[in-house]
Amino acid sequence: MFKDLEGKVVVITGAGSGLGKSFAEEFGKAQAKVVLNYLSDHHIPDVDASIRLIEEAGGQAIKVQADVSIEDDVNRLVNTAIEHFGTLDIMMNNAGFEKPIPTHEMSVAEWQKVIDINLTGAFMGAKAAVNHFLQENKKGVIINTSSVHDTIPWPNYVNYAASKGGLKLMMETMSMEYAQYGIRINNISPGAIVTEHTREKFSDPETRAETLEMIPAKEIGEVQQVANVALFLASDFSNYIHGTTIYVDGGMTNYPAFMGGKG
Ligand code: BGC
Fold this sequence. Notes:
Strand order of the largest sheet: 3-2-1-4-5-6-9
CATH architecture: 3-Layer(aba) Sandwich
Number of domains: 1
EC number: 1.1.1.304
Helix content: 40-55%
Order of helices and strands: EHEHEHEHEHEEHHEHE
Largest sheet: 7 strands, parallel
Bound molecules: beta-D-glucopyranose
Radius of gyration: 18 Å
Enzyme class: oxidoreductase
Number of helices: 8
GO molecular function, one term: diacetyl reductase ((S)-acetoin forming) (NAD+) activity
Oligomer: single chain
Structural class: alpha/beta
Strand content: 15-25%
CATH class: Alpha Beta
Family: Belongs to the short-chain dehydrogenases/reductases (SDR) family.
Shape: globular
CATH topology: Rossmann fold
Number of strands: 9
Function: Catalyzes the irreversible reduction of 2,3-butanediol to (S)-acetoin in the presence of NADH.
């Protein structure tokens, strides 16, 4: 469907699992040249499986280990993509981390870890990509995986909500700086989506029922539904979309507590 993605070079951070894995496979099926970033060795079998799937679909892919919270790693990741495939067209800052801890018990190290991965990691990825786009005079694309919690507060996840809230204004500010060069920077904000990270909690009947209460569409989302939006935002079909967040959340951000018509 998105023919212009054919041959485009895309870097996807956090491609070893969850949404990132699905993004990688969908871009590969669209015949993009995919650089799958992963963090630890235990991701390698999954990353290799995605690479095989992409190659079977006629695409090209490589894997690069890097920790997105370390600047040298991020620069090495982007440089490897450029050296291997000759350029970079699309940067997907997707890697993220979440773990519930009540705020009064959260150490500064626990706070910092999430900010470093989710926010500073995306900043460093976006910065490296913009530098390349400016040098090459290229109308590149940056897509950050954010969350409905860039706008909905999330008790016990103060570091996560702060990182995603920051990611929203980071994206909007960067877009304002670079839209004039044709560089498009946008966020995707998923709600409750089934991935290997959330499968367990959503298969608990009580948590599932509580979550469905928060979703006007009354269904938990699928990774494919988020990947569709990633392809759209990366392609020329969205070439007038700058500095926007697309919520893929079944209406979660639309005040579902008001569904009963009271208030
Ligand atoms: C989190 C999920 C959560 C969803 C809705 C996402 O950002 O990664 O764990 O279910 O927000 O609360």
